[in-house]
């Protein structure tokens, strides 16, 4: 079974990072993942150069949106800047020819009605000009998270399914997040597909913590708490491109790729 595998890398020269790993795809941030400043193209050739060089090298680009984006929240001082920042990253990711922009599901506050968060997701999709696929990712922790639990993912999908941009919304399945979030990896691919109809990307990561811990701490393959056959089965069953968000440099990532390919084959 042939699966495209890559890693999350530094944004300065994603093509060189892909080459160093022998990877056909890479994921990276555009700018500060913890700031509202907006996207930044650090590649020497700018956005057009990055797009052209990636196409020439046969490397698919994926962009991860800043962690601080939370379009679900009832706090307007966070929600409104989040929507503006999301649009800026959609625009920048489309400009470099990215295959998708990955964004976390966000959360509401403890005292809030989760229904408000689902409806805020609807408003966000309606307000955003989706120039490329927006891949919503499941998250690991928080009782008030929008995409930790399967039923909440279902409610998000119910809310956004009637929006004009819904055909450009996809799903990114993170194995560490699913494990730490309390979702059985034995069935998670089928469970997610039953809700979303699709899995566009897999973040394949081992977990440093136990099942349902709520802790988002990634580990290299074989060094964490997830059964190795379950990790391989998720990748095999999803049949989607894979980004390894595991710790380490290019050499360590090549080891992770080899570990995974040996078990998926």
Oligomer: single chain
How would you state the average pLDDT, rounded? 97
| Strand arrangement across the biggest beta sheet | 1-2-3-4-5-6-7-10
Structural class: alpha/beta
Which regions contain 5 or more consecutive residues with pLDDT less than 50?
none
Fraction of residues in helix: 40-55%
Radius of gyration: 17 Å
Tell me the β content.
5-15%
Describe it:
With 265 residues, this protein is an alpha/beta fold. The protein has one domain (5-242): Divalent-metal-dependent TIM barrel enzymes (TIM Barrel). 40% of the residues lie in helices and 14% in strands. The chain is built from nine helices and ten strands. The protein has helices spanning 14-21, 46-57, 76-95, 114-127, 150-160, 175-180, 188-196, 228-238, 250-264, and strands spanning 5-8, 25-28, 60-64, 100-104, 134-137, 169-174, 201-203, 206-207, 218-219, 242-244. An eight-stranded parallel barrel has the order 1-2-3-4-5-6-7-10, surrounded by four helices. The mean pLDDT is 97.
Give descriptors for this structure:
single chain; alpha/beta; TIM Barrel; eight-stranded parallel beta barrel; about 260 residues; 9 helices; two-stranded antiparallel sheet; about 15% strand
């Amino acid at each position: 079974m042939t699966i495209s595998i890559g890693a999350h890398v530094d944004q300065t020269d994603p093509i060189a990072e892909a080459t160093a790993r022998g990877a056909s795809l890479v994921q990276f941030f555009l700018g500060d993942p913890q700031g509202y400043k907006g996207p930044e193209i650090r590649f020497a050739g700018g956005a057009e150069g990055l797009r052209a060089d990636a196409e020439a090298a046969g490397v698919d680009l994926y962009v991860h949106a800043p962690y601080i984006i939370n379009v679900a929240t009832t706090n307007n001082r966070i929600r409104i800047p989040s929507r503006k920042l999301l649009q800026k990253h959609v625009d920048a990711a489309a400009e470099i020819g990215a295959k998708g922009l990955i964004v976390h599901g966000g959360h509401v506050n403890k005292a809030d009605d989760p229904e408000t968060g689902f409806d805020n997701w609807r408003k966000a999709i309606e307000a955003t000009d989706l120039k490329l696929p927006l891949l919503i990712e499941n998250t690991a922790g928080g009782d008030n998270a929008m995409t930790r639990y399967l039923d909440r993912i279902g409610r998000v999908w119910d809310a956004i399914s009637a929006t004009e941009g819904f055909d450009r919304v996809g799903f990114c399945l993170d194995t560490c997040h699913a494990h730490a979030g309390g979702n059985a990896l034995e069935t998670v691919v089928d469970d997610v597909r039953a809700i979303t109809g699709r899995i566009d990307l897999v973040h394949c990561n081992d977990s440093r913590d136990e099942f349902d811990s709520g802790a988002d701490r990634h580990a290299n393959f074989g060094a964490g708490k997830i059964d190795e056959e379950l990790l391989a089965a998720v990748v095999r069953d999803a049949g989607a491109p894979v980004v390894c968000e595991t710790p380490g440099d290019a050499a360590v990532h090549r080891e992770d790729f080899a570990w995974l390919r040996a078990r998926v084959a």
